[in-house]
Amino acid sequence: xxxxxxxxxxxxxxxxxxxxxxxxxxxxxxxxxxxxxxxxxxxxxxxxxxxxxxxxxxxxxxxxxxxxxxxxxxxxxxxxxxxxxxxxxxxxxxxxxxxxxxxxxxxxxxxxxxxxxxxxxxxxxxxxxxxxxxxxxxxxxxxxxxxxxxxxxxxxxxxxxxxxxxxxxxxxxxxxxxxxxxxxxxxxxxxxxxxxxxxxxxxxxxxxxxxxxxxxxxxxxxxxxxxxxxxxxxxxxxxxxxxxxxxxxxxxxxxxxxxxxxxxxxxxxxxxxxxxxxxxxxxxxxxxxxxxxxxxxxxxxxxxxxxxxxxxxxxxxxxxxxxxxxxxxxxxxxxxxxxxxxxxxxxxxxxxxxxxxxxxxxxxxxxxxxxxxxxxxxxxxxxxxxxxxxxxxxxxxxxxxxxxxxxxxxxxxxxxxxxxxxxxxxxxxxxxx
Length: 433
Ligand code: HSE
What we know:
single chain; 433 residues; alpha/beta; Dihydrodipicolinate Reductase, domain 2; Alpha-Beta Plaits; eleven-stranded mixed sheet; six-stranded parallel sheet; elongated
């Protein structure tokens, strides 16, 4: 059997510990699959003393992950610390500069610095593997970077954050409030260290930016992603979605449009007939529309130690086998500069919930403002005074529009607010059929 691949792991949280467990428990099986043994020789984390349920005794300990990366015995660096700057970035740069491949789950770092890091890897004859950075255990990076290389991809959409899907699923099923569901997701080890990354959509945006680059052969353009999170979604919106035949999901969508590449993350009304709407709990799903293959939907666990470590180990074995694919699927110089499609020009249907003062003529004003902009309404729903009327005498009015543009919707909603018929901020949620 060939010489062992000796690796160092920086970051020993849920995913790091799960990775060590797999690499030790399945050592012989993995050696047979990779054609060579994989041996952990060094580890690094913030606190040496913490009990992680794994024996760190056999490995050299480093307080400094960049020093671990420079250890001459370490030939592959696994970075599981997270964070777009600082220690994770330094450790990865140290490894790449020495020509050592890197396996990482760090979507925030790659969304911010992907092009520069990919170029550094290439300059030193190595690569970055990041299957664990998007959709947890689903092998979507490999699908886009390798298996679908014969296709032209037009759209990638999906549920990319387990925490948000878990929260929305439990809010819907059990009528629990947002805070209780977030706490449960954190206890289960799904959430990021800073859970605002999850619930405000940034984690999804980071993952989407990586999928976009692979799907369209463009440089990662994390700043171009339009982002809205789920913290403003109310139980009333979930009730309305159900009544109208939808579910609310936090979707990430990247597509080629005539204006350029649209990248957006937002709560979305998804038809109950669609495959994505049935994906519940921490499960993630990614739908890839490609020619000639058609649509492929990958569904699986999107977060948690075991699922994410599965992706990490997949990457390590790939590298042990000598399968070093360019970080973003093609040489850095071949990646196109993406043309950004402005969100204002997004086209689609909309759910609009207005808190309307219950007086004659209010509905007529709303209909007029919509009609003035050529926005066609599929349905208008006013919920009964008794059940929904609040102390100010306002009632929820729900509008479902046919396809229109973001700009027109924003203008119409602003005009309605100026007419003085609302007593609260409007809720606008995009619809995907
Ligand atoms: N916090 C992420 C999620 C897990 O909830 O999906 C890793 O990406």
